[in-house]
């Protein structure tokens, strides 16, 4: 009997010892995991005006992990990033910035905030380079008005007193050739590189890239992929916001998928790419009654040559980018204009769209009429539909999206004239075609950058122009929207005598209707 009791006692002690050991191991493991966390979002409900959240956010990011947040346009990617950097408050829950603990211990006399160490690199971040508010679209083509624009060298290096950009960053991003250019003369892709260089110089703890490759050519995307690897090795935490798997940087390890402003699922980057590959690619045609879209009553006579350039020179002031450009676009032809960042594509388009006063000194004919023979720029613009990254950058009118689309009838940045009933109906119809009627009454500056790009695409098409110029129109769009917009472009091109100039850095996005190519080396 005594022997039995002793055995039971020893078994009980052994059991309790095992339980205590397991609990201690569990606590140590949790502590170790928690110590290795960079930040964690716990049961958080954001406080965002006009948006109701029913599902709390829960997410943990370990030190050194490279995450991407993926989802369709308007799914909540940017909102999540703004929540992380502290732009929005919380109705419940908390965001714990674990990386701040050690920094705070080293700086006990100062209260540190996460937003000081986490930087968001987005399309709109371009405004942080310099004050763009007094600048306006087309200004860079007016040399006399570019005198006040700072030089890139002054912005990057300055007097060396405040986080100058290192030679290593300049070399990695291949921007040494930009140092003696004025800021206002840079293309959208060059501005993107400049922005990344400036933010890198601030020694951030974490960088959040919204559409990291937007506006960048193949070589620049490769350079940026390499830079991401270097950043990670240097201890910079990376997070990417992407609308599609094709936009994932090579170094991405894990993916958080957003859907309707909630955290829908988690996957490895490899799993997410495989899911993307299995998506059903729909190539069905889209049927649009283009006759319902208004054209001017006093429409000009039909021309034979839409564009004719003879020995055209592309230059910024005294700096010559390219010489002897010869290009003829016959009525009804569909062209792709290709070339790396800074090769002069946007400047060439500015001659055609009558944005650049230098065109008066060029041997240039538009719609069978030589430039400078008495035509107004509005007579030219009325025949052209146009959208570009540069227009997106300067379109800062916070008006309803329907007004943005309708401004395409008047070729203005903002709507300053009253639309007719027919024009307003056409604007509504174009939003319906692009499946974004829900944006109709939303302020343009309050929607995501991808949704803004979609609205500006609708603006370019709303008057069913004679010539459509699309400069990187699909950047920032999710896979579904890219396919839809591509089918809309092909439907437009199926009309008799419609001409197209399509610019892109991604050849896989080129519509099937393209039958001619112009490439600037």
Account of the protein in words:
- With 521 residues, the chain is α/β, with parallel strands linked by helices.
- It folds into 2 domains: 227 residues, P-loop containing nucleotide triphosphate hydrolases (Rossmann fold); 230 residues, Rossmann fold.
- Helices cover 32% and strands 21% of the residues.
- It contains 15 helices and 18 strands.
- The strands form 4 sheets. The protein has a 6-stranded mixed β-sheet with strand order 5-6-7-3-8-9, with helices on both faces. It has a 5-stranded parallel β-sheet with strand order 15-16-17-12-18, with helices on both faces.
- Strand 8 and strand 9 form a beta hairpin.
- The chain is globular, with a radius of gyration of 27 Å.
- The protein starts with a helix and ends with a strand.
């Amino acid at each position: 009997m005594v022997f039995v009791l002793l055995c039971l006692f020893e078994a009980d002690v052994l059991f309790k010892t095992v339980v205590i050991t397991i609990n201690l191991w569990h606590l140590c493991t949790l502590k170790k995991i928690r110590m290795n966390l960079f930040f964690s979002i716990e049961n958080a409900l954001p406080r965002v005006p006009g948006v109701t959240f029913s599902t709390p956010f829960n997410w943990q990011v370990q030190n050194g992990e490279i995450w991407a947040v993926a989802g369709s346009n308007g799914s909540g990617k940017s909102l999540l990033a703004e929540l992380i950097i502290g732009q929005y408050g919380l109705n419940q829950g908390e965001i714990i910035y674990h990386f701040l603990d050690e920094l705070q211990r080293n700086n006990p006399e100062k209260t540190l905030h996460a937003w000081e160490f986490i930087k968001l690199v987005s399309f709109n971040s371009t405004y942080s380079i310099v004050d763009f508010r007094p600048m306006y679209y087309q200004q860079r083509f007016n040399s006399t008005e570019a005198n006040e624009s700072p030089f890139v060298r002054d912005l990057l290096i300055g007097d060396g007193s405040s986080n100058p950009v290192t030679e290593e960053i300049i070399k990695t991003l291949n921007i040494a050739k930009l140092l003696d250019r004025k800021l206002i003369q840079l293309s959208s892709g060059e501005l993107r590189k400049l922005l990344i260089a400036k933010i890198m110089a601030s020694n951030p703890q974490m960088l959040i890239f919204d559409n990291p490759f937007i506006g960048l050519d193949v070589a620049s995307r490769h350079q940026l992929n390499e830079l991401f690897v270097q950043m990670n090795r240097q201890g910079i935490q990376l997070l990417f916001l992407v609308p599609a798997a094709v936009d994932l940087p090579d170094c991405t390890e894990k993916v958080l998928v957003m859907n309707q402003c909630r955290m829908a699922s988690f996957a490895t980057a490899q799993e997410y790419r495989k899911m993307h590959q299995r998506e059903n690619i729909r190539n069905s045609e889209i049927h649009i009654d283009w006759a319902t879209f208004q054209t001017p009553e006093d429409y000009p006579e039909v021309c034979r040559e839409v564009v004719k350039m003879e020995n055209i020179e592309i230059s910024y002031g005294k700096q010559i980018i390219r010489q002897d450009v010869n290009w003829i676009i016959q009525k009804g032809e569909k062209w792709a204009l290709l070339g790396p960042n800074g090769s002069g594509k946007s400047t060439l388009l500015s001659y055609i769209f009558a944005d650049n006063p230098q065109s008066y000194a060029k041997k240039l004919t538009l719609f069978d009429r030589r430039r400078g023979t008495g035509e107004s720029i509005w007579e030219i613009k009325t025949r052209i539909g146009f959208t570009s990254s540069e227009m997106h950058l300067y379109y800062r009118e916070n008006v309803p999206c329907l007004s943005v689309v309708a401004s395409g009838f008047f070729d203005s940045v903002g709507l300053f004239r009253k639309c007719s009933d027919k024009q307003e109906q056409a604007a509504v119809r174009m939003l319906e075609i692009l499946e974004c009627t829900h944006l109709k009454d939303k302020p343009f500056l309050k929607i995501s950058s991808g949704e803004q790009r979609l609205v500006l695409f609708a603006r370019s098409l709303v008057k069913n122009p004679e010539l459509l110029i699309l400069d990187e129109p699909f950047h920032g769009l999710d896979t579904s929207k890219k396919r839809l917009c591509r089918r809309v472009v092909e439907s437009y091109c199926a009309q008799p005598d419609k001409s197209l100039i399509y610019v892109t850095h991604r050849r896989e996005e080129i519509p099937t209707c393209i039958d001619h190519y112009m490439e600037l080396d």
